[in-house]
Amino acid sequence: MSDNASPQDPGAAAPHDNAAAAPLTEADQLAQVQTELALLQAKSADLADQFLRAKADAENARRRAEDEVSKARKFALESFAESLLPVADSLEAGLAIKDATVQQINEGAQATLRQLVAALERNKVIAINPTAGTKFDPHHHQAISVVPSEHEANTVVTVLQKGYLIAERVLRPALVTVSAPK
Prior knowledge:
It is a single chain. This protein is of the alpha+beta class. 49% of the residues lie in helices and 17% in strands. It has a 3-stranded antiparallel beta sheet. A hairpin with a 2-residue loop joins strand 4 and strand 5. Helix 2 packs antiparallel against helix 3. The longest helix is centred in the first third of the chain and has 50 residues.
């Protein structure tokens, strides 16, 4: 040992440690490399298995989501159709009466209309029926004509046909006449 080297210094050579410092034989190196190769192959196989499982899970999730979307599309109208069935039943019952009076027909039509309006509202179909003097809204109204009026310019004068919203989206704009500028 040199004067500068201490027994704890890893860089210092031990005087009688020749067996530990002896180079590995080719057989030992080959065995060590084969062991490392076997470990890496096992790790690679494990990672490949994990990848295939994750890929299968993702494919299953995608397939389930597609099935749910398909079912949602297929049955989206089911609730709406169910709420319209009583309306159809009422119309059929009214038409089955052969000797109905005008008053009975009128009352039956009004009752059926109430059923229809209630069914539409349950399914978030709301009427757009602006009153005279309401400011014209091009998002909800469609102006059919401009007429002279005592109302302020660009306000609804009359409603020719109600419009409808479905879940806050315009299904059909209300057809209106609008007051002309003075």
